[in-house]
TrEMBL record:
Organism, scientific name: Desulfuribacillus alkaliarsenatis
NCBIfam families: MntA_antitoxin
Pfam families, alphabetized: Polbeta
Species lineage: Bacteria, Bacillati, Bacillota, Desulfuribacillia, Desulfuribacillales
Protein name: Polymerase beta nucleotidyltransferase domain-containing protein
InterPro entries: NT_sf, Polbeta, TA_antitoxin_MntA
Gene3D superfamilies in the cross-refs: Beta Polymerase, domain 2
């Protein structure tokens, strides 16, 4: 299975703290041309694009699928929320760390949502 292949490969990367599969493969809605969405959390923000591209290429070759590799460290709150709510966790060095990041992501999303609602109301008042 794809999850097992990805899990084994991800475990080889020391910097990866945890990984999820999300998107169409996570909800069993993939089709022939679907890519495989993989989200990873690194022990520090990504600074080396070459390492990222190497990992993406290795996962693509391993699975024979186009892999969309997302680094959660710098991802938008909405994307983090999607990963944690609909994704399938396939690897973790520490489940406690995953849980902490899940809670942090939900708080970030909640804060962003409040800001967007206030911004939407202000625009509505100004233009309607």
């Amino acid at each position: 299975m794809v999850c097992d292949l990805i899990k084994k490969k991800i475990a080889e990367y020391d910097a990866v703290q945890f990984a999820f599969i999300f998107g169409s493969y996570a909800i069993n809605k993939q089709c022939e041309d679907s890519d495989l969405d993989v989200a990873i959390m690194l022990d520090k923000p990504l600074v080396d694009l070459e390492d990222y591209l190497k990992m993406k290429m290795e996962l693509t070759e391993l699975t024979k699928l186009e892999v969309d590799l997302v680094v959660l460290n710098d991802a938008a709150p909405l994307l983090k929320k999607e990963v944690f709510q609909t994704g399938i966790q396939i690897y973790a060095k520490s489940q406690t760390f995953v849980n902490e990041q899940r809670i942090k992501a939900l708080f970030e999303y909640d804060d962003m949502e409040k800001y967007l609602e206030a911004s939407h109301r202000a625009l509505k008042e100004k233009y309607i």
